[in-house]
Amino acid sequence: MSNELIFFSEQLNKMLDPNVKEELESVQKGLMLYRQELVYQKHETEKRITATVQDVVPVQVELDLLAVAFSTCGCKEDFFCRHRMAVFFSSYADVASVIEWVQNWRKKRPVVETPPPIMLANDLLKAKTNTVLEKDYSAWKTFFTSAYEEVIEANLHLPPYLVNEKIRLYLQKVRSKSPLEREWKNLYSFVADFTSLLLTMRMIREDKMKSEVIRFFHSLANDLAEELHTSVQHLSRQARPFAFDPFLEGIREDVTDLLDGMDVLKYEKIDVYRAIWSFLLTNPVWRRHELERVQEKLASATLQPAEESSYQIADIHLLILTNHDGEAAALLNRLDINVIPYLFYWLKMFSDHDMDNRAAPYIDFLNRKVRSFLKDLSSYYQASDFVRTFSGPVGRYCYKMNRMDVLERFYRECMPYSYWNYANFLFEQEQYKKWVEMHIYTDISIDVIGTENLKRVAAQDPALVLPLYYHAVQQTISLKNRSAYKQAVRYLKKMRTLYKKMKKEDVFLEYMKYVTESTKRLRAFQEELQRGKLIDAK
Predict the structure, then answer these.
(1) Exposure letters 117-126 (e unless 16+ CB within 10 A, then b)
(2) How far is the C-alpha of 343 from the C-alpha of 367, rounded, in Å?
(3) Where is each SWIM-type domain found (predicted)?
(4) Helices 2-15 and 82-92: crossing angle, nearest 10°?
(5) Contact call for residues 38 and 95 (beta carbons, < 8 A)
(6) Is the pLDDT of residue 187 over 70?
(7) Residue 151: how many CA atoms within 13 Å on its side-chain side?
(8) Reduced to 3 states, what is the DSSP secondary structure of residue 326?
(9) Which of 81, 83, 254, 530 falls 20 to 30 Å from 466 in CA-CA distance?
């Protein structure tokens, strides 16, 4: 680990500036925490160091030895905080001198900038203009590509933490050439992110990177896709001068690359493709031509399965945008459960644009296929997260269109992952009998349900909640320990109260006879029944 820690120390030395007050304080306070021996529960591996630092409250720290920027702390500070510094010093002390590191870092001198020469206003304007790229799509794209190759691709042989630093420098270089005008700045930002995403996808497909490095590019691709979703909507809302037309034409030609290839970024790239055609490329003729191109590609039977799936999603999306809803639904119904994650975009789009009536075929497809889809997911968390995500748009559609039957079917098909959503729905709809049956079926403890809900149901019909108490008594007695027996007695007393309200005390007494007789060998439980005055002492 010593080599990795030395690399980390060098990277940290370059990143922190002693002339910046916040960073100087981080080093000073981190040194103090280290000297006071407030770093504990430390665990070191070749790639990471984790530890707890006792400050005002304990905080968890994780240092990523491959990339300083990926180090985290429970204090949530954006910069390299005192807690991270304390953990660094604690480990660095094992391989080198902490005092020497601090002294060397303090020797870094501030850069003294030479004041620019006095220039005439006309010369100053020319100089400022020269720092900005020509407003031309090809020129922008060439600049981004050459910068990407020069700053990132040429340095893939470097240690992982330096590759991550090169990515940061590339993005900084790209931003430095942004136009001054606001409307052009937004377009430039979009084209920069779009081109960078295409270049990153190519990098991942070519698989030229070490396993430690590839995660940086996956993270970069995800960040770029998120930025594109935001910026494309900003662009769609601003005025577009005629000078934008050649840029839109260029984007239209390059957006087709998002459908090609079989990389692992299929969801991200398809969502970017749909967003661009939804918000930016709104020309009806362009959309019709793209639809024809996509359908020709599908008919050619030359696509790999992953590419075919991307083209099918594109086909449906363009059919929706060109108002061919019948054809879109027909194509959707020919696809398998793998298309389900892509439905969210369309459901949200229909909801956001007040076109809920068009969502029906997609929700019907979801309800028919979702059980099989959830069964194929690898974890309970994934399935629960999926249900939670889709409950929003499905619920909005059903409440707006007054289709409670559709919403109930969705929750029913998603069981057990939709348990709480379904329970709340049934309670809200006053379907109390189903509500009780669902709790018993899922074996949920009556204590988890909530006393207020039980009281509300009991007020309407005490008989409805009795099955829950019967089930709870059986569950607790089967645990065969004293605390469980006490809890069972409390449930039995609740049942006695409910039977009194119903004026059916004789039924409760018969039940008590059964309970007493069937548990006569459980001496501790018999004692608890006597203490609770549910049976007489012998």
Answers:
(1) eeeeeeeeee
(2) 12
(3) 59-92
(4) 140
(5) no
(6) yes
(7) 19
(8) helix
(9) 530
Residue 123 has pLDDT above 70, yes or no: no
Helix (H) or strand (E) holding 510: helix 505-518
Among 22, 144, 18, smallest CA distance to 81 is for 22
Asked whether the beta carbons of 125 and 179 are under 8 A apart, the reply is no
Mean pLDDT over 123-146 rounds to 72
Omega before 416 within 30 of 0, i.e. cis: yes
Q: How far is CA 18 from CA 40, 54, 105, 453, in A?
A: 27, 25, 7, 60
SS3 at position 281: coil
Alpha carbon 306 to chain centroid distance? 23
What is the length of the chain? 538
Write down the pTM of the prediction. Answer: 0.70
In order of 13, 114, 129, the CA distances from 123 in angstroms are 39, 19, 10
* Phi-psi group of 450: left, alpha or beta (phi > 0 → left; psi -120 to 50 → alpha; rest → beta): left
Predicted pLDDT at 249: 95
**30, containing H or E segment:** helix 21-35
414 in Cβ contact with 387 (< 8 Å):
yes
CB–CB of 273/194 below 8 Å? no
In three-state secondary structure terms, 443 is coil
Residue 309: how many other CB atoms lie within 10 Å: 20
List the strands of the sheet with 48-54, edge to edge. Answer: 39-44, 48-54, 58-64, 72-73
| Helix or strand run (H / E) with residue 382 | helix 380-401
CA distance 494 to 328: 56
CA 469/CA 488 separation, integer angstroms: 9
Residue-wise pLDDT tens digits, 96-114:
888 888 888 887 654 444 4
- The residue among 51, 54, 49 whose CA lies nearest residue 65 is 49
Percent of the chain with pLDDT over 90: 52
- How far is it, in rounded angstroms, from Cα 281 to Cα 293? 15
In this structure, what token pair is assigned to residue 91? 């480990």
